[in-house]
Amino acid sequence: MKSSSEAYKNAGVDITAGYKSVELMKKHIERTLVPGVISEIGGFGGLFSLKDAGISNMTDPVLVSGTDGVGTKLRLAFKLDKHDTIGIDCVAMCVNDIICKGAKPLFFLDYIGTGKISPEKMAEIVSGIATGCEMSGAGLVGGETAEMPGSYPADEYDLAGFSVGIVDRADIIDGRDMQEGDKIIALKSSGFHSNGYSLVRKIFDTENSDLKEHVDELGCSLGEALLEPTKIYVKSILALISALKSHAGVKGIANITGGGFYENIPRAIPKDKKLLVRIDKKSIRVLPVFEMAARFSKISERDMLNTFNMGVGMVVIVAKEDAKLALEVLEAQGEEAYVIGETVSAGGDDRIEIV
Questions:
Q1: Are residues 209 and 136 in the same domain?
Q2: In a domain, 146, yes or no
Q3: How do residues 266-298 score in pLDDT, each as one tens digit?
């Protein structure tokens, strides 16, 4: 028999709605039960077996973790009353970070805080999380849905997640072999991903705009373009790492999130390397939604590049002689990939130059 509390319900917390949410989520969670997941839904802790996952050929396995949220992109999900893709963003923000170290995602956990639990809405959110887990090969081993009246409006929620991956210590991607002349390869983004949305919402006045009206320049409505899920690059990057293992390898990876090019690409360069990444500005294939944002806002080109991904969701750094193979591998994985620059000797403290 399920527990219940009328007193708690009268205070604004309906635990029976929580039970219903879990029941509705189960079919989505089951899609993510990759080898290694050994716990059932509802336990106090999610269990994951490295042995069952086939992690047996590593000499010195290292766990890599990442946590993130979706930010104010949620405001668009609220306005459009569309909740089945925002979970993809949540997973992407975590797994796209840990893949930068060369780590294969193992499992994911989510957190949803809301003013009032709507079982159907919670299940929609988790359906997107499950899709993101499928895209990255991670198991959804647990989560928390917290009903907090007074902390959130009844029809709103916050969403965050946490992921753990694994990589052999010798295979950690940390830029140690980076040198002058290495090539910078861009991977196309799906749009704004999940960064800069406080500015995005201001630029397009999303609270007062018709987000459902078709925009020819975008080939869809503005709402569809802005709510487009963050692209998950895990399987493509893992394929690239495998293909280059017998070559010079993948030397560096940068996830182009908040802070754009100027903040994220330098993070892939070790502090002891006197190198600078030189980006050819004209080579960047800027997506129409960014061109539209720049036109509407009159924001400087420098600020755009320091805030948004501009159509480049991730960059990888490889040896010059491996660039052709890297492009072939990424394109075979369905990525639009192209060279946007190279590493050069740095004369000062700057780690990136866009010319």
A1: no
A2: yes
A3: 999 998 999 999 999 999 999 999 999 999 999
